[in-house]
Design brief:
The complex is a heterodimer of chains A (about 90) and B (about 475). With about 90 residues, chain A is mostly helical. Chain A is about 30% helix and about 5% strand. Chain A is built from two helices and two strands, in the order ααββ. Helix content of chain B is about 40%, strand content about 15%. In chain B, helix 4 (about 105-115) links the parallel strand 2 and strand 3. In chain B, helix 5 (about 155-165) packs parallel to helix 6 and helix 7 (about 220-230) packs antiparallel against helix 16 (about 460-475).
Chain lengths: ~90, ~475
Amino acid sequence: MALVSKDELIHLGWISRINLSEEEIETFHHQLDDTIKYIDVLETFSSENLSLDHLEIVFSDLREDKAIEFTRELIPKSSRAQQGYVKGPKMK
Amino acid sequence: MSNLYNLSAGEAHRGIIQGDFTAEEYVWSIIGRIERVEGKVHAFITLNKENALVCAREIDKKIRTKEVVGSLAGVTVGIKDNISTHGLKTTCASKILENYVPPYNATVVERLQNYGAIVIGKLNLDEFGMGSTTEFSRYGPTHNPWKVDYVPGGSSGGSGAAVSSRECTISLGSDTGGSVRCPASFCSVVGLKPTYGSVSRFGLLSYANSLEQIGPICRTVEDVVTVMNAISGHDPNDDTSFSSRSSVPYLSINQERTPSSIAIVKELIDGCDPAVSKTIYSALDKFKEFGSECTEISLKSVNYALPSYYTIAMAEASSNLARYDNIRYGFSFPMEGFEWNTYISNVRSNFGEEVKRRILIGSYVLSSGYYSKYYLKARQLRSLLRQELLSNFAKYDLLVGPTMPVLPFRIGEKIDDPLKMYLMDVDTVLANLAGIPAISIPAGHSNGLPIGLQLMAGPFQEQKLIDAASLLDNAINIKGSPEI
């Protein structure tokens, strides 16, 4: 039985903001299903009383929370950048 | 003087400092080599020849005027094209970033340049570092210098192939699940994945932040030491880099330090290609001759490592790559006729197929209903694996196994079966999940194809890896260069 349906794949494309072609839906459907079946082995492992992984970061090591002056030169030089702003597509 | 490109970084630097040849002559030799073999290897995405010559002349001037120069002065370095270089295109081998020119240098690039290294160009990779063969590059595959119709490994395939083919002296790669060690193994060079937090990731275009580290690929262990001493250490721009210099010690070469105890991991050697296992056991015999006590051990959580790795890596990829919307930078794709969401969805359909697959799977494992089933479980297993590995490093100096369970294979042979490709990373992902250092060193050949030995050590125990690698490298002496 497939763990990922075509409808789920189309939904994943939407939430990932990737427009999928008919051909991609056909190919990815099988490939994603194979991969999800492979990682499904995780379910066979009993994880009771196990902690989550954690990175050993000492909070005193973190950078001071201080504003750094913004340099407008860092805005990419594209035709869409005007007066320090960048033009985007219309919202609905 | 015509074969200067064959020199290691140490040899080239000493030759330049002693006045045997100039940095400019050395760089010209590398450029000549690139012009002769790049058509067959295809290691580079962008070349930086003119600027490299300018830098070489500056170094020559400093030497003439007796100014102090760094330990990499005159050495040419190739940079994986997912590491930011000021004013030099950084594409991640993706259409999405085909025109992106970073306004700043990655910390590692800045540090190499401070030591006098000369950036000769940007190297090919699997798009955004996602792959094990460098076939998933927008710019076409890189070829293995040892057999040009074979894959060089990946995702830092350009970095491995360029060093092996003598198109640059040293290179930087990034290692998320083996992406430095795999091409080092397939191209018969030395590749180190440092301890998580020992090298700054500032300027590395993120794929899976909790797993990846930048690491050197070189032809000698000595060169790995020189590069690591230049790039490691705290960076205020990367809060995951360790702040204490004592945590990230300077490395040195000493071939008299023998590891007292080595364990071979049963699960890593079981099921690999017979030619690979034979070579790994031969290397282990060498360590026995040096006096190391060698034991076989079994790690029960290893069988869950690969599914855990892919769950975490793809989840982080789907989050990290959400930023690429083509609004502030990107490729030419007019906005007229699109509303916000459809514009971004259409732009992002220009990711390559492997990147799309990983983003989709990442979105799946992070979805409501699947999050605790996959993602949380994977993180718990990661914690267990780290504990199991650390408890073994209390007993053994090093854990060993093959870097790759298979020999390099023909370009195109496995590209249609993503799962088969993922399974090849079984031996390398442990070090990324646990955040420990690991090195791949050349251990032999089978039918002209290279085989790499992987050594793993506890956190910040890079010196133990260097000692063992140096000892073995000297003893088995896998030298020679590919005939291209």
